[in-house]
Structure formats: structure tokens, C-alpha cells
Amino acid sequence: MTAERPAPASESSETRWMEARPREETPIVPPDTISGRSFTAVVAIMTLLAALTSGCAMLVLAAADDWRADVTREVTIQIKPNAGKDIEAEMYRAAELARALPGIAEARPYSRQESARLLEPWLGTLASIDLPLPRIIAVRVAEGQSPDLAALKAALARQVPDAILDDHRRFAARMQAMAGSTIAAAIGVLALVLGATILMVGFATRGAMATNRPIIEVLHVIGASEHYIARQFQRRFLILGLRGGVIGGGGAAALFLLASLMVSRLAGSAGADQMAPLFGSFSIGAAGYAGIGVQILLIAAVAAATSRHVVRSTLSAVQ
Question: Which of 81, 189, 197, 297 is spaced 20 to 30 A from 307 at the CA atom?
């Protein structure tokens, strides 16, 4: 009988571990557990909420851009009633000044009946009541043009003192502020989701390490490196994060697609007309669906990186 040759002293424990481990690695973390399914469900719910929030923010931003584009293409001239002046003549003079300005496509004065209908939601029917009503001139800017509204305002001040030029800048600024607030809220929700994911992964990783502590200690004794052990946890939580993200993000994408189809089928109805100014066609487009995909990958990457960091820091602390 020939005695088995002992391993050379120069061989490291890591080398002996690499030679002794089986070809098919058995994962340290069980592939399917109740805690893993619970983690997947929570990630799916958070991804769904984040994707819905970001998608709605994109819808509101697109609607706000459309509103700003419409507003910047129109300005309004208001003629205040004055007992000592002919308001019809002042309207004609103000409309002619607007038409003469380069970049203006149309200047249409509103009749008294049209002006009264604009006030009906607040004051009721005024057509039969002899009240001094302000008159409106709707001025439409030509496509792609930027007329000198300051010059028009100065001309109106000289020739029609009772005229007020409103370029809707204040309304456009409010729309821009609302869109910015919506985007900030969406970013805040995504940051909260990522923070919650980091906390969940940290607790879940420490729980899995405590459950499998004997196995981890044996692997350490026979030479398994921190890199190998951390990789096992990282791979497991990457799969769980991807699975939960795909479920939640896919659900959000399906909801947006279903809403878009329903709005397109209900086009022309009262409900669709009321929702259109705020959310448009309910279509987030290719950029929206790509954003949902990025959120799925981001959440999975955060889960994997957090798990690896927790494992390596825990193993380093116990050595």
C-alpha cells in the first residue's frame, strides 16, 4: 500500500478548496424559500408603484408641454369698457395694430354675445342685460414665429389706452412649475423605493447568513474566499430583484397599455374629453416603457450590490 502523498506546504487553502469543490456548485442560499418569495412580492409591489408614478409624471409633463405650446401660440387683447369711448372703434384699432405686427397670423375680435358667453359660468346669462362688458381679441401667432409683443404692447398703450395685452406667461410659468413638481415627486418616490430595497436586502441577507451560518463557517474553514460566498448571495438577490422588478414593471406597463387602448376606444366621449387635457392620450410612448425597463434593472442591481456589500462586511467583521 502506498501512502497518499500529502499536499505540499506551499499550496494555499484557497487552492485546495478550488480543487476539492464539485463541478456543479450547490448554492449556499436555497433557490426557493418562503422568505425569497416574500422578498420578490415586496419588490414587485414597490417597482409597480415606482413605475406608475414615473409613468404618470411623464404623462403630466407631456400634457403640460402641449399646453405651453398652445398657450405660447396665442395672446389676448382685452378692451376695458369706458363710458366716454367707443369700444367697437377701439377694438377695430387694436385688431389692426395686432394684424400689422410681423409674425401674427390672425387677430379675431369677439362679439358682445361671445364675450357674454365667456362670463356665463360665473355670472349666468348676460346677453339680455345691458352691462358694460370687457371685449376680447384673440390673437394667434404664426407657426414658428416669435413676434415682438413688447412693441405691440407699446403701440396699444399709445393708441388704445384701455387695451391690456396678456401673453399668458404667468399661466405658462405655473404649468412649468407644476410639471417640475411632478417630476420631483416621481424622483422622490423612486429614491424611496431604492432606499427601501437597500434596507430589505440588508435584512434578508443577514437573515440568510444567520440561517446558513454553519455552512458558511465550514466553507471558510476549508478555504472558500469571501468573494465566492458574497457572489452566491449576490447572484441570488440579483435573480430575486429581477423577478420582482419584471413582475411589478410588467404590470405597470400593462396598465398603461390598457389605459391607452381604452382611451383610444372612448375617444370623443365626455369622460375621455375631460381626461385628455390632464393626461393626453394616456400613452407613455417608447421612452416611458424604456424608463420602466431601466427602473427594473436599477432595482435588481441595487439588490445585488447591497447583498454583496453586506456579506463582505459581515465576514470581515467576524474574522
Answer: 189
